[in-house]
């Protein structure tokens, strides 16, 4: 089926978390100058777009997702002059820059909130304020970071809504003045020359009228009233008509609890956005108690999710493909083997995300096969979400941190935020100072310097993989067909475009697997993470975590 060609469908996006990427000034925190100094490394990967996590002014309670000034760069990272040099250097390397747009909430330090809490008539209704006679929360909604979604403000003597940290009050998008202010910000950044936005939790903007109680048994209490709310589509369409339609930029919305049907509405051919992130495949390893427990996962579940998104967005929509980001633990530690088969499982998982139909997103360090890190004490954590939930787990179980350490280490967002591992120098070559968060101890063996010198490394494989994807139209626009939907060990699928047929074969386990496909002897093996891959797919044995891409 034909798809209109666009630059962002053919792109590979590389996500940079600047706080942890490279520290150029020795203060222990990554910065914009550090990103500039490492741009050649990023360009050498063959990627087309950089997504930069927030660098706006912020008290950094939630590492920049609590913004106090949308038009200014936080001094932690540099200043606007440095940011402009970064933009110029990115464009000079024929790459594009996508910024984070965080407009469901601001910081409590933002001028809007400060004036709202003082009752300034112009800003009084910029946020969701409520008062109750008994002082109890206005409803039973949960904060995603734990506890009630309401906090009393001593200045205004009322409670404000915060679906995330208490320092992140939710904006009241029902107020036209709020929307106008946001549209001005979006337009301002496009005027600076950026190439698009990744939009943080963008489907939480609309809250149900009256803010009614939510289902107390829901994993996120109240979410049925603020996820995909009643006015959301109207808000996004208005944003597209007022600003986005004026620019040839990429807009990708982060959308918790997103379904395929909703994705077609928001990011289909006629939708206000280009792409939407869903989370269904990132919940495969959730346990009986949800996110803060660990369960077994089955390949057929992943296949069902992937097949649905690949086929149901085939004619009306486009997939945003990813394993990792700043909020997700390292995929090798979740769905691979970080010990015996780190290289093999990292390359297999990379093959999967870069050979599906959609726009792939690669998170910094993923191309090295970086793994989850140890956090021996609660004081080693920096993630406010993990700290809050660790304390909740400890209180509920009446135990010390050691008793919940394994689940916290598995889930914490800090796993994605440990420093980028550049070398085996102190602190992984990330900084000459004391890092804001400790480097993963395995940096002595897992690092850029070492992997650059090894043609068999995860990094070398990712370069080949990105090049293959970028130079093979069938891997971008071709149809998708699952060849073994019921196999619990091997994922095999075909990508077809006109007369060109490509078959991807993945052993997702740490043991050998047999495969029988009705394709016989392939014309050529385009890429494999093992030497001498199988030559006859009508009857072959795959080695642990073996991945191979064939033209048939």
Automatic annotation (TrEMBL):
It comes from the Archaea. CDD domains: AmyAc_SI_OligoGlu_DGase. The keyword Hydrolase applies. Keywords: Glycosidase, Hydrolase. One of its GO terms (molecular function) is alpha-amylase activity. Residues 15-417 form the Glycosyl hydrolase family 13 catalytic domain. InterPro entries: GH, GH13_cat_dom, Glyco_hydro_b, Malt_amylase-like_C, O16G_dom_2. GO terms for biological process: oligosaccharide catabolic process. Belongs to the glycosyl hydrolase 13 family. This is Alpha amylase catalytic region. It comes from Halomicrobium mukohataei (strain ATCC 700874 / DSM 12286 / JCM 9738 / NCIMB 13541) (Haloarcula mukohataei).
